[in-house]
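User: Design a sequence. Structure:
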């Protein structure tokens, strides 16, 4: 009886090696290694929260950038290209001394 068990065990070792080395065995090993650890749901919610914060900060940064460009254009003063309504430039205004 023990000899039968030993023979079955000896035959199962190469069969098991073939199965483990096959694509099915590799797929099973990959699936086991990708198992979700405990607390992963909490980690996923934290990641989603961080991604939302990053989106908010990038939108805020873009808004601040636009505001900075606008204020800079106001501070640089009028130029001939920005004077679209046809007002005379400050240098072209005649003096009122006469």
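Assistant: Done.
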């Amino acid at each position: 009886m023990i000899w039968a068990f030993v023979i079955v065990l000896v035959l199962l070792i190469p069969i098991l090696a073939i199965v483990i080395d096959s694509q099915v065995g590799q797929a099973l090993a990959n699936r086991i290694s990708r198992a979700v650890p405990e607390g992963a749901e909490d980690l996923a919610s934290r990641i989603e929260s961080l991604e939302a914060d990053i989106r908010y900060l990038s939108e805020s940064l873009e808004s601040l950038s636009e505001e900075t460009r606008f204020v800079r254009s106001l501070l640089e003063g009028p130029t001939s290209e920005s004077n679209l309504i046809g007002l005379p430039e400050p240098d072209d205004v005649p003096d009122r001394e006469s």
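The two ends are 130 Å apart (CA to CA). The helical segments are 2-21, 23-33, 40-76.
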